[in-house]
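Sequence in, structure out. Go.
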Amino acid sequence: MDTNVGPWAGQVIDELSKNDPAWKAYVKDPTVAPKELRPFPRCSNVWWRR
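Output:
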């Protein structure tokens, strides 16, 4: 299965999980997001404020 998340869009999740330390950090702790992404809690706060 591939992902549609920021810089990893179109890449296979299994491969990212094996080879990409930034992906592993993001999956382990969604508050650790690359510059291109909003951290998960920030996105969820936007959703709940609607």
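Check: The two ends are 31 Å apart (CA to CA). Helices lie at 13-19, 21-28, 40-49.
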